[in-house]
Amino acid sequence: MKKIVILTGATGGLGREFLKQLLKEEVDEVWSIARNSQKLLELQKEYGHKVIPVSADLSDIKGIQQIKELLQEKKPLVAYLINNAGSAKMGKYSDFSIEEIDRTVNLNCKAPVMLTQLCIPYMGKGSKILNISSASAFQPNPYINLYAASKAFGKNYSRALNVELEGTGITSMAVCPGWVDTELLPKEINGKKVRYPGLVTAERVVRQAIRDAKKGKDMSVCSLYVKCQHLNVKLLPQRLVMKIWMAGIGKYLGDN
């Protein structure tokens, strides 16, 4: 029985970093899942034969079914499930089409739950589920309201599932970074250079996440900045938290 990692969103900044670091673990394969088959083949070429490219669109139930069939065929031991794939479009509510809303909810909420449900029967003592959430899950955030709400879903699901898994040897953890220096972050908005307070590298987020997962934690927060943010939103009224947020992003909103 092969011991594997299942990694979604494998070709993005955080995904590539998870791939690099988890290849150092005692695993036989990393099933690297993303939509772009060419980028997946490039990953395999760069990181070697342990990388198994799986081209699938997880916002579509057909993509989930594809993973189900692979599991049934290969019957591996899933050591890590990293639910990293997600949609992170930022903007006013009116900027989103019905199709974009559907895709975001499917990818950020439904896909991680479905994949977790599929993988648990193939897990054993010491197996770990990491759902990539965000510091945005700590409070309501206008102008990224759909993203933040979907990440709150992921955080709460992960932590509650961890309680349900007690006694199985399997753990579930939400990874809640702040701003991460990847290609997802726009450098300019409405002609203004964007400043991201507390910006950290993907390498730091992933290193902390793997360390926290091995400790059995149910949430990983990788920097003092975000830990302080988490504390503040517990102490302050949410209306005030949103006003502080708006004061920080107001200059980027243009005519919105």
Give a brief outline of the structure:
By secondary structure, the chain is an alpha/beta fold. 45% of the residues lie in helices and 16% in strands.
General description of the model:
There is one protein chain. The protein has 256 residues and is of the alpha/beta class. 45% of the residues lie in helices and 16% in strands. The protein contains 8 helices and 9 strands. It has helices at residues 13-22, 37-47, 61-74, 98-119, 145-164, 202-214, 224-235, 238-249; strands at 3-8, 29-34, 51-55, 77-83, 128-132, 171-175, 188-189, 192-193, 219-220. The strands form 2 sheets. It has a 7-stranded parallel β-sheet with strand order 3-2-1-4-5-6-9, with helices on both faces. A two-stranded antiparallel ribbon has the order 7-8. A hairpin with a 2-residue loop joins strand 7 and strand 8. The protein starts with a strand and ends in a 7-residue tail after the last helix. The relative contact order is 0.12.
Biggest sheet: strand arrangement: 3-2-1-4-5-6-9
Described by strand count, sense and barrel closure, the largest sheet is: 7 strands, parallel
Proportion of strand residues: 15-25%
- The portion of residues assigned to helices is 40-55%
Point out poorly predicted stretches: none
- Strand segment tally: 9
Give the overall shape, derived from the CA principal axes.
globular
For the structure shown, list the relevant keywords.
16% strand, 9 strands, alpha/beta
Q: What's the arrangement of secondary structure elements?
A:
Elements: E1 3-8, H1 13-22, E2 29-34, H2 37-47, E3 51-55, H3 61-74, E4 77-83, H4 98-119, E5 128-132, H5 145-164, E6 171-175, E7 188-189, E8 192-193, H6 202-214, E9 219-220, H7 224-235, H8 238-249
Parallel strand pairs: 1-2, 1-4, 2-3, 4-5, 5-6, 6-9
Antiparallel strand pairs: 7-8
